[in-house]
Amino acid sequence: MIGCFPFNTSWKKSDFYRKERLGKGGFGAVWLMEEKSTSLLVAVKEMDYYTEKEKKMVTSEITIMKNIYSKVQQSTSSSFIHVVQPLGFFLNEEEDKAFLVLEYCQKGDLRKYIENMKLSGTEISEQKCNQIIGELASTLKQLHSIGIIHSDLKPDNVLLTSEFKVKLADFGIARQLQFGREYITAQGVFIKVQKCYEITVKRNKMKIVP
User: Fold this and answer.
1) Of 103, 130, 152, which closes a domain?
2) N or C terminus of the chain with fewer C-beta within 10 Å?
3) Which residues make up the binding site for ATP (predicted)?
């Protein structure tokens, strides 16, 4: 964890060295970059920023990331935050691109970790499996304790730090649950989110009550 790093909106593209591409999806690409003045390695999510829809999506994701990280940080007594820390944001209007600067997790995502284990013919030990599952449980506990549902939990969005700690990324479709609202669930599973939220299920609808 980087700690109390202020969210920086004064960066520009020339402040970074581009080192390698970490991933690519429908949103754009994620790059490993080095901040020139500090030599800090960061993950930079490059997104299209041309249409009003694209601008709205970028603004929404940045707001969600900042709010979620801040809320988890304030609500947990743990010294470790299981959410990737947003570090800054800048635009390159000449290229119609937006860049979200994020904490870099050195061991990559869980999908790549599993694929690399398969390629090397190595089995993931029971101890390592238990560790990953335990870390994921801690991650979801931190989020659910403040009424946040990630909504896109998959190996690609589970990142691993150099100490093999789990961090969740990509909160583009995360939901902040609200009292009194109804939510549709495909399975109709009863869920209780910590002490301040209780979700009741009736005919595949979830309703949150205080």
Assistant:
1) 103
2) C
3) 45
Question: Mean of the pLDDT values across residues 170-194?
Answer: 60
Q: Which of 103, 131, 159 is the last residue of a domain?
A: 103
- Binding positions for ATP are 45
Domain around 207: 177-210
Alpha carbon 90 to its chain centroid, in Å, reads 18
Q: pLDDT tens, 158-169? A: 999 999 899 998
* Euclidean distance between CA atoms 151 and 168, whole angstroms: 11
Q: In the predicted model, is pLDDT for residue 119 greater than 50? A: yes
User: What are 12's two structure tokens?
Assistant: 């520009």
What is the pTM (predicted TM-score) of this model? Answer: 0.78
Query: What CA–CA distances, in Å, run from 81 to 35, 56, 144, 145, 168?
Result: 23, 27, 13, 13, 10
- Asked if residue 29 belongs to a domain, the reply is yes
Q: Binding site: what residues are annotated?
A: 45
Q: How many CB atoms within 10 Å of residue 95?
A: 12
Kindly report the CATH number assigned to the domain that includes residue 33: 3.30.200.20
The reported pLDDT for the residue numbered 3 is: 54
Residue 52 lies in a domain: yes
In a domain, 76, yes or no: yes
